[in-house]
């Protein structure tokens, strides 16, 4: 009887302990970690030098005087250097007639370089991968690219695969969001994400200014990464995902149409970058930050911003709307140590930096990535991360903010926490002589060759033979 009473008295405590243990165990498995990643670096014979860029522009038959001059000015002001990479067919002079096989080869080169190095470095077998997400926005094939990877690396029959297209430059965060959602319902998972863009079939050969601009900005690149929610691997991981926010303004006509693949007047397919793009990006950016800020900033900063905003409203009450008044500015540096900005172009970096009140030190990784690798679409923020890692900026406990913009129109962002000190030992930036970055004077070779072209030269400037 006494034994029965003793067990009975402890039974509620045992139940509480069991429930608490299961809660904590489930919470542990819901965390999303970045185990490792591998950036893509094409061979040196794919570099776009100043001279070669000029040759590519000159041999485009459909360009007139205005378009030729527009392209040269765009390259001069792009912030892109002459060591970025382009698809093989451009160097073979076939950008006006790429084949389907060219596009497939471009993707297979990316897979072979990134996935094989990543698996070797992490010691993960292809058979251990539970989830595979591939995002290549502008190439759809049959079988899918994710199926090609499964076939090439002989992955398991029960692997969960996702093949994303049309997601634009912010696609890698969409992929990570899918993985994060899966981790919440499945324990001890390993997920691979492959992110890139297919430039081969999307080189525009027409003369629409809103479309030829994409040829100046987008470059070859890509990244493969492995994510996990295994507690046993937590100490080996690089980053832990704290939060991820996605903003989609596709319901707005202006936002939907500002960044879209379409045909020009002659029926040539191209990627249209509209004049409303800056406005659409700004609106999506603001809405994204409104949702993100309460999740990543300390309460004291949110209170300071709230009090400042209310005070300014009271002081400005009754004033004319045309009167320029000071605005309350939130300080994101109170909750963030490092900023990975999407390298959509010089203007994109400058605008985001100004909005967040960032210093030159903060935006140096984004500027150098744009200069060295160009806009590599959805993989661009990972090249920025690679720069920080190689510069040994990332220390355990640091908070890392990533933000990107994409067609739709979308603005996606996330906050990572550095799990261990990162050295960037096997990073593509090491092969780029990272010690020389940033250069004392960031000269643009295109400026020296084409920067003399001015608006008043339009009537005298002649196309080269």
Topology overview:
Blueprint: H1 2-29, E1 33-39, H2 50-58, H3 65-76, H4 88-91, H5 100-122, E2 131-136, H6 145-153, E3 160-164, H7 171-183, E4 190-196, H8 209-217, E5 222-228, E6 239-248, H9 253-257, E7 259-263, E8 269-273, H10 277-296, H11 299-315, E9 338-341, H12 346-356, H13 360-373, H14 380-390, E10 399-406, E11 410-418, H15 445-450
Parallel strand pairs: 2-3, 2-4, 9-10
Antiparallel strand pairs: 1-5, 1-6, 4-5, 6-11, 7-8, 10-11
Helix pairs in contact: 3-8, 13-14
The largest sheet is: 9 strands, mixed
Total beta-strand segments: 11
Strand content: 15-25%
Tell me the number of helical segments per DSSP (H or I, 4 or more residues long): 15
What does the radius of gyration come to?
25 Å
Would you write up a description of this structure?
It is a single chain. With 465 residues, this protein is of the alpha/beta class. It has one domain: Peroxisomal Thiolase, Chain A, domain 1, CATH 3.40.47. The protein has helices spanning 2-29, 50-58, 65-76, 88-91, 100-122, 145-153, 171-183, 209-217, 253-257, 277-296, 299-315, 346-356, 360-373, 380-390, 445-450; strands spanning 33-39, 131-136, 160-164, 190-196, 222-228, 239-248, 259-263, 269-273, 338-341, 399-406, 410-418. The strands form 2 sheets. The chain has a 9-stranded mixed sheet with strand order 3-2-4-5-1-6-11-10-9, sandwiched between helices. Strands 7-8 form a two-stranded antiparallel sheet. α3 runs parallel beside α8 (209-217) and α13 packs across α14.
């Amino acid at each position: 009887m006494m034994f029965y009473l003793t067990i009975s008295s402890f039974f509620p405590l045992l139940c509480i302990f069991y429930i608490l243990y299961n809660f904590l165990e489930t919470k542990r498995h819901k965390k999303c970690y970045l185990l490792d990643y591998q950036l893509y670096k094409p061979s040196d014979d794919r570099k776009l030098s100043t001279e070669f860029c000029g040759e590519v522009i000159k041999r485009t038959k459909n360009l007139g005087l205005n378009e030729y001059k527009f392209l040269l000015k765009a390259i001069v002001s792009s912030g892109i250097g002459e060591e970025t990479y382009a698809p093989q067919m451009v160097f073979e002079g076939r950008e006006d007639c790429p084949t389907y096989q060219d596009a497939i080869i471009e993707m297979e080169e990316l897979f072979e370089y990134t996935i094989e190095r990543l698996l070797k470095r992490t010691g993960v077998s292809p058979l251990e991968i539970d989830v595979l997400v591939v995002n290549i926005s502008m190439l759809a094939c049959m079988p899918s690219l994710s199926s090609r990877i499964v076939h090439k690396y002989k992955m398991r029959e029960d692997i969960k695969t996702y093949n994303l297209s049309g997601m634009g430059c912010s696609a890698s965060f969409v992929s990570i969001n899918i993985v994060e959602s899966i981790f919440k319902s499945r324990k001890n998972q390993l997920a691979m994400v492959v992110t890139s863009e297919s430039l081969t079939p999307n080189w525009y050969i027409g003369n629409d200014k809103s479309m030829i601009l994409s040829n100046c900005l987008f470059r070859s690149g890509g990244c493969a990464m492995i994510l996990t929610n295994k507690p046993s691997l937590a100490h080996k991981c690089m980053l832990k995902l704290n939060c991820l926010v996605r903003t989609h303004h596709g319901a707005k006509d202006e936002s939907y149409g500002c960044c879209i693949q379409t045909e020009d007047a002659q029926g040539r397919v191209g990627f249209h970058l509209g004049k409303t793009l800056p406005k659409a990006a700004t609106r999506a950016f603001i809405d994204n930050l409104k949702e993100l800020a309460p999740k990543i900033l300390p309460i004291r900063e949110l209170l300071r911003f709230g009090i400042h905003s209310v005070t300014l409203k009271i002081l400005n009450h009754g004033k004319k709307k045309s009167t320029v008044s000071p605005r309350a500015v939130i300080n994101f540096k109170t909750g963030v140590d490092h900023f990975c900005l999407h390298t959509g172009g010089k203007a994109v970096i400058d605008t985001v930096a100004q909005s967040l009140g960032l210093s030159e030190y903060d935006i140096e990784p984004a500027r150098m990535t744009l200069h060295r690798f160009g806009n590599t679409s959805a993989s661009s923020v990972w090249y920025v991360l690679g720069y920080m890692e190689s510069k040994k900026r990332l220390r355990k406990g640091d908070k890392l903010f990533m933000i990107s913009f994409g067609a739709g129109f979308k603005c996606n962002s996330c906050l990572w926490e550095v799990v261990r000190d990162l050295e960037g030992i096997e990073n593509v930036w090491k092969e780029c002589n990272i010690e020389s970055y940033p250069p004392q004077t960031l000269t643009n070779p295109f400026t020296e060759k084409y920067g003399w072209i001015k608006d008043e030269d339009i009537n005298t400037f002649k196309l080269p033979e």
